[in-house]
Amino acid sequence: MDGAVSFDAYRMPDELWQQMQFLLPPYIPSPLGGRPRAVLRDVADAIFYRIRTGCQWKAIPRCLAAGSTAHSYFQQWVEQGVFDDLWQLALELFDDLVGLDWRWQAVDGAMTKAPLGGEATGKNPTDRAKLGTKRSLMTDARGIPVGLAVSGANTHDSRLLQATLENRLLRFPRDPNSRCERLLLDKAYDSQAIRTLVEEQLSFRAHIRSRHQEIREKERARPRRWVVERTHSWLNRFRGVLLRWEKKVDNHIAILQLACAFYTLKQAQVLG
Questions:
Q1: CATH code at 222?
Q2: What is the reported pLDDT for 221?
Q3: Could you tell me if residue 259 is inside a domain?
Q4: 124 three-class SS
Q5: Residues in domain Insertion element IS402-like (predicted)?
Q6: Backbone angles phi, psi at 122, to 5 degrees
Q7: From CA 260, how far away is CA 144, in angstroms rounded?
Q8: Distances (CA, A) of 242 to 13, 76, 124, 266
Q9: Are residues 116 and 239 in the same domain?
Q10: How confident is the model over 95-115, as pLDDT tens digits?
């Protein structure tokens, strides 16, 4: 119909839904009857629309699902770890189709505004002390996100490093027969305590570059660490990631996990 608005570009891709539907809990119809349960695919589309646009839950188009219904299911799935499992499944599929490259891994932090405050928020020292949150992301050599940690915007990058590395090692325990894994870090991590943590406690080989070193290296070739910065930039295309409205940190992490799962599966299609 002329003038009709299409929301197809904001719906969850079929490939992502095909993996997600197997992770959802079984919903058994009530023997007492009552109102029919919402179509789960429509609910998933509504949640994805909310993350892509950053709108309020009640602003989700009713042709997808009622905002209250989408939010209710979202809370259930967060508590059940559905989005965490979805990201893990996407990583395993990518590893099977393309192969995660553990030779050069990178970690970097990025800050997000959080106007409503809430858990794991703090005063952003680079934004006039406005409330914000920081995510620490770890990627493989291709920029595929493999580890994540979240804290307040006033948390130094180095204080989130251990949690980020442990999250990655929890998802993919190290193969004892694998070669040495190199970890790329910028000058924010340049300290003896970080080198001890990375090399002695977690058995990575640290490659920490100062800003001056990176500038000199750019004259010869682009530094390997650029992939994690690209992934941060890509995740910020989700308006629900770029601006945090969730007061509960688990909800914010779930949104990040869904975005990481989408990006991972998309790259699997491109590279596979």
A1: 3.30.420
A2: 46
A3: no
A4: coil
A5: 12-87
A6: -165, 175
A7: 8
A8: 20, 23, 15, 20
A9: yes
A10: 999 999 999 999 999 999 999
* CA quadruple 12, 14, 18, 20: dihedral, nearest 10: -10
**DSSP codes of every residue in 192-205:** HHHHIIIIIIS--E
Q: Tell me how far apart the alpha carbons of residues 104 and 225 are, in angstroms, rounded to a whole number.
A: 9
Residue 75: domain span: 8-22+35-79
pLDDT in tens, 30-72: 777 667 788 999 999 999 999 999 999 999 999 999 999 999 9
Q: How far apart are CA 249 and CA 258, in angstroms?
A: 14
The domain total for the chain is 2
Enter the tokens of residue 81: 């770890």
DSSP secondary structure of 136-184: EEEE-TT--EEEEEEEETTS-HHHHHHHHHHHHHHHSPPPTTSPPPEEE
pLDDT band at 28 (very low <50, low <70, confident <90, very high): confident
Q: Which amino acid is at 116?
A: L
Q: Which residue has the tokens 């990518």?
A: 94
The answer to whether residues 52 and 159 belong to one domain is: no
Q: Which of 129, 112, 128, 126 is nearest to 188 (CA)?
A: 126
Q: Is residue 253 part of a domain?
A: no
